[in-house]
């Protein structure tokens, strides 16, 4: 055995090969007995494929390109026993003794050309360096900084934080050879709302009148010239990215111009007209960069207007059902395979997917385990022309424990033929030092959320926020909200949620057996997972209590509604109290405000319906004051 550092030779002098050499040196310095004397790295001009062989303490890496050499480095380290199941140096698994290297490692190459981690919240930008290193070591090759430069930053990186941390994060991602993407729902900001008084014709007609709130009138030349000029300035101020995103307003529907619709332009067509105009400015400022067209909500249908050559597709199927794969024979998902193919056909070689497997806002406080869904989704996208697939990491807090979905996405984006069982077992082995019981625990959680997340078409919709008055009287609902369910289906939904709670009970019974472990490393991992388990429990129980409110409303019994409201408030208050034990500020406040917006307001509205006369008016006044205060807190959350 020898602890001497091996000689590392790089036959091709690329920056990434140098990084690969540094990663090898830093990791092997932590490993006794590796018996390696020399590592030779050679690569061609481009590509991510690689192979390597080992004999007599000498490892020979041959890669298609610099990126492939870097991937081979991490593959070799994994073969020795290193892994990176979650971000952070403390989560790096360093083997006590190195694993025996095989004589040869067959050729490896990714199923998907692009594999993107989308950083989409303050919590993830705060740990951007750790997440970027984690992504590179797990063979992802793209970082998308999803920013909100003008809003509250509830589901994106806030402006101030982005400006403070961008240079360091971008430099680190570039050092790993990452493709870089930047942006978010920035299109409306390119047409200043203050222009409305002088140029109302630049704004959409909605409800028969010009409306300054959303998007623009794409039939007006002045509007298009304005957004083009302002986009040019924005691209100039944000140089060096490979793909830019300036999406329309984040609305369920209705943000586009009725006059344009009457003239034959769908919402998708209007979005494409705007994006093509901006793309002209991008071509002037940064030739070679791409601008994304977003297929999302009311722009899911493909546009009938051809995209400019530098416009690529971002397909974001947020209204799908996550209890089933994207191509499942399911009443909600049945349309998506054809929607994807039709959209992708309009963007040959430039079709990206924006997925939500790591989105704890969509799923409300957790990103529930769904390894088999991720596997099936990625297999579909890889087989049907996707250039790249990204996963949005967002929520109201950092992940409280290593996230199984993140691990699964990285593994399966490289090779979607891996079995879900294998992915769960490898995660548990690396995080919990055992694959004996924890895979069954996660599989039971997946079953629980498969019941919880199953949707009928009437549930696969959302209602956005309007004015404060409109928000109080008609609270926003996200996809899967019990308050979207038609009266006739509430009973069926309750039965489905009972099955979810039964599966949760199975998961918790397995987990309870592990709480008595004495090994310190395992016990720390178990304690972290206990926080995640609690959030899963709270999320499913709260959903059941909201369904009870809907059932009481359908039955028409005021006393039953009152009792159900009390029970829901209890579960919501308990969640807000308990999470303080493992979540730090400002994420406690962030979570409370989001839960108020998507859950608390709906509970209040159910109780309001029981009141009349003076009591109703007094309560409405009090709720308006609370709403104004909470929206002020939301706006000030990230300074």
Summed up, what is this model?
The chain has helices spanning 15-28, 66-80, 122-125, 128-137, 159-175, 221-237, 258-262, 267-285, 336-345, 371-383, 404-414, 420-432, 438-452, 468-473, 490-512, 520-555, 558-578, 587-608, 613-636, and strands spanning 7-10, 38-43, 50-55, 58-63, 104-108, 114-119, 142-148, 157-158, 179-184, 205-206, 209-210, 243-246, 290-295, 311-315, 351-355, 388-393. By secondary structure, it is an alpha/beta fold. Among the domains are: 7-108, 2-Layer Sandwich (Chitobiase, domain 2); 445-636, no CATH class.
Task: Looking at this protein, list some descriptive labels.
639 residues; alpha/beta; Chitobiase, domain 2; 19 helices; 16 strands; globular
Q: Helix and strand layout, with pairings?
A:
Layout: E1 7-10, H1 15-28, E2 38-43, E3 50-55, E4 58-63, H2 66-80, E5 104-108, E6 114-119, H3 122-125, H4 128-137, E7 142-148, E8 157-158, H5 159-175, E9 179-184, E10 205-206, E11 209-210, H6 221-237, E12 243-246, H7 258-262, H8 267-285, E13 290-295, E14 311-315, H9 336-345, E15 351-355, H10 371-383, E16 388-393, H11 404-414, H12 420-432, H13 438-452, H14 468-473, H15 490-512, H16 520-555, H17 558-578, H18 587-608, H19 613-636
Which range best describes the helical content: under 10%, 10-25%, 25-40%, 40-55%, 55-70% or over 70%? Answer: 40-55%
What is the count of β-strands?
Answer: 16
Tally of DSSP helical segments: 19
Report low-confidence residues grouped into runs of 5 or more.
none
Average pLDDT confidence is 94
Instruction: Give the class from helix and strand content and strand pairing.
Output: alpha/beta
Shape field: globular
The main β sheet shows up as: 8 strands, parallel, barrel
Strand order of the largest sheet: 6-7-9-12-13-14-15-16
- First-residue to last-residue Cα separation: 55 Å
């Amino acid at each position: 055995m020898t602890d001497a550092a091996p000689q590392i030779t790089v036959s091709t002098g690329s920056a990434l090969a140098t990084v690969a050499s540094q990663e090898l040196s830093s990791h092997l310095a932590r490993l006794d007995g590796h018996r390696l004397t020399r590592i030779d790295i050679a690569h061609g001009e481009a590509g991510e494929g690689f192979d390597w062989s080992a004999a007599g303490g000498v490892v020979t890496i041959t890669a298609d390109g610099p990126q492939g050499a870097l991937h081979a480095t991490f593959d070799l380290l994994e073969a020795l026993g290193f892994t990176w199941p979650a971000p952070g140096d403390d989560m790096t698994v360093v083997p006590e003794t190195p694993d025996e290297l095989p004589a040869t490692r067959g050729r490896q190459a990714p199923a998907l050309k692009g594999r993107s981690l989308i950083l989409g919240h303050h919590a993830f930008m705060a740990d951007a360096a750790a997440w970027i290193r984690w992504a590179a070591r797990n063979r992802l090759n793209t970082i998308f900084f999803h920013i909100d430069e003008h809003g509250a930053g509830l589901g994106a990186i806030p402006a101030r934080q982005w400006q403070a941390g961008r240079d360091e994060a971008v430099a680190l991602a570039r050092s790993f050879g990452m493709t870089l993407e930047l942006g978010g729902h920035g299109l409306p900001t390119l047409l200043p709302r203050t222009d409305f008084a002088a140029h109302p014709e630049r704004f959409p007609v909605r409800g028969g009148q010009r409306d300054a709130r959303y998007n623009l009138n794409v039939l007006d030349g002045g509007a298009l010239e304005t957004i083009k000029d302002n986009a040019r300035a924005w691209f100039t101020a944000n140089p060096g990215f490979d793909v830019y995103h300036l999406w329309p307003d984040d609305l369920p529907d209705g943000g586009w111009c009725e006059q344009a619709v009457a003239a034959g332009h769908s919402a998708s067509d209007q979005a494409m007209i705007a994006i093509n105009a901006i793309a002209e400015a991008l071509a002037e400022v940064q030739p070679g960069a791409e601008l994304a067209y977003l297929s999302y909500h009311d722009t899911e249908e493909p546009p009938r207007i051809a995209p400019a050559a530098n416009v690529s597709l971002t397909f974001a199927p947020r209204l799908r059902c996550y209890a089933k794969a994207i191509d499942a024979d399911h009443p909600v998902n049945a349309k998506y395979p054809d929607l994807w193919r039709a959209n992708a056909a309009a963007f040959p070689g430039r079709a990206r997917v924006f997925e939500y497997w790591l989105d704890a806002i969509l799923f409300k406080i957790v990103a529930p385990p769904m390894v088999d869904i991720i596997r099936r989704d990625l297999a579909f996208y890889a087989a049907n022309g996707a250039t790249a697939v990204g996963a949005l990491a967002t929520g109201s807090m950092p992940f409280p424990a290593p996230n199984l979905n993140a691990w699964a996405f990285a593994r399966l984006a490289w090779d979607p033929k891996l079995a879900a069982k294998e992915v769960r077992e490898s995660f548990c082995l690396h995080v919990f030092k055992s694959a004996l019981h924890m895979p069954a625990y996660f599989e039971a959680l997946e079953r629980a959320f498969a019941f919880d997340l199953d949707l009928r078409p009437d549930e696969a919709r959302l209602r956005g926020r309007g004015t404060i008055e409109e928000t109080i009287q008609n609270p926003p609902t996200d996809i899967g909200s019990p308050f979207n369910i038609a009266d006739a289906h509430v009973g069926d939904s309750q039965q489905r949620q009972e099955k979810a709670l039964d599966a949760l009970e199975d998961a918790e019974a397995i987990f309870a057996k592990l709480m008595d472990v004495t090994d310190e490393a395992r016990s720390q991992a178990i304690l972290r997972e206990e926080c995640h388990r609690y959030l899963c429990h709270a999320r499913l129980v709260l959903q059941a209590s909201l369904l009870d409110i809907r059932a009481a409303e359908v039955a028409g019994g005021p006393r039953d509604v009152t009792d159900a409201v009390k029970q829901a408030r209890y579960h919501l208050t308990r969640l807000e109290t308990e999470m303080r034990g493992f979540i730090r500020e400002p994420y406690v406040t962030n979570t409370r405000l989001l839960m108020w917006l998507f859950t608390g307001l709906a509970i209040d509205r159910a109780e309001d319906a029981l009141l009349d006369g003076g009591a109703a008016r007094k309560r409405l006044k009090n709720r308006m004051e609370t709403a104004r205060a909470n929206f002020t807190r939301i706006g000030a959350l990230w300074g």
